[in-house]
Amino acid sequence: MWELLWFSIVANMSITGMNLSLMLNSVGFYQISKLSMIPVVCVMEWMLHSKRYSREVKTSVVVVVLGVGVCTVTDVKVNAKGFLCACVAVLSTSLQQITIGSLQKKYSIGSFELLSKTAPIQALSLLILGPFVDYYLTGRFITNYQMSSGAIFFILLSCSLAVFCNVSQYLCIGRFSAVSFQVLGHMKTVCVLTLGWLLFDSAMTFKNIMGMILAVVGMVIYSWAVEVEKQSNTKTAPHSKNSMTEEEIQLLKDGVESVLVKDVELLGESKG
Questions:
Q1: Has residue 244 been placed in a domain?
Q2: Would you place residue 247 in the very low, low, confident or very high pLDDT band (cuts 50, 70, 90)?
Q3: Of 120, 134, 106, 218, whose CA–CA distance to 166 is shortest?
Q4: What UniProt keywords apply to this chain's record, in alphabetical order (predicted)?
Q5: Domain limits at 62?
Q6: Is the N end or the C end of the chain the one with fewer CB atoms within 10 Å?
Q7: Are 72 and 211 within 8 A, CB to CB?
């Protein structure tokens, strides 16, 4: 129960921090803070779970971050409140994603089961605290807002999309890792830019194209690096297992021989 409460607090801090960061900072600095999540997740996994990454994985992560940064980061304006909110958002989001994977592995539960246990606590706490946070930021309660059919439709649409987003997050982290989810998540940026150009005639500059190509190349390298790392782990695992078995066999042999020697000595003494 305490772990669920802890996770809900961290998740709510992540949601609040990301929204406040977007509200208080420029879009460029918001994108930089999102890009910083990959190295932060790597460092936190190393600190919390002693997880180490190969050189290929580190290189691919750098390529992805550079690619997404080139095609998204424009103006960068920083202020004290926005910087603080961005730091809270990055740390809490990284910790939340790491906790998702560790809870699933610790209790051997699936993504939907974990989501069904954490979502009610998150929803209840946000329903209680959300209006007061809104009042602190805007000076008005949500009840003062005039609801319309269009607003209700988009609220329901946003909630539905959020459900799918959370499900995909839990599935991806449970199946792979928090770093893989972050790398895969940046594919969303590439899709947004591409669909904006195709559907809404948004400007597509040479800088955007080069950044997207670099990001996709980084994702391909990351997939290859993770696969190579898995294969190397599977090759070393049987070897270590066999060596341990040989040691155990040798210990058993030594033990049997010592017992036989003692039996022979006792037999000789009894005859004497």
A1: no
A2: low
A3: 120
A4: Membrane, Transmembrane, Transmembrane helix
A5: 2-235
A6: C
A7: yes
Q: Is the pTM of this model over 0.85?
A: no
Q: In this structure, what DSSP letter does residue 25 have?
A: S
What does the angle CA 164 – CA 170 – CA 173 come to, to the nearest 5 degrees? 130
What's at 264, amino acid-wise?
V
* Amino acid letter, 143: T
Distances (CA, A) of 187 to 42, 207, 215, 216: 19, 17, 8, 8
Structure tokens given for 156: 């329901």
Q: How many CB atoms lie within 10 A of CB 124?
A: 11
141: left (phi > 0), else alpha (psi -120 to 50), else beta? beta
- CA distance linking residue 94 with residue 102, whole number of Å: 13
Q: What is the pLDDT of residue 269?
A: 55
Q: Which two tokens stand for residue 76?
A: 């960068």
Number of structural domains the chain divides into: 1
On the 0-12 / 13-18 / 19+ scale of CB atoms within 10 A, 4 is middle
**Residue 209 forms part of a structural domain:** yes
Answer yes or no: is 250 within a domain.
Answer: no
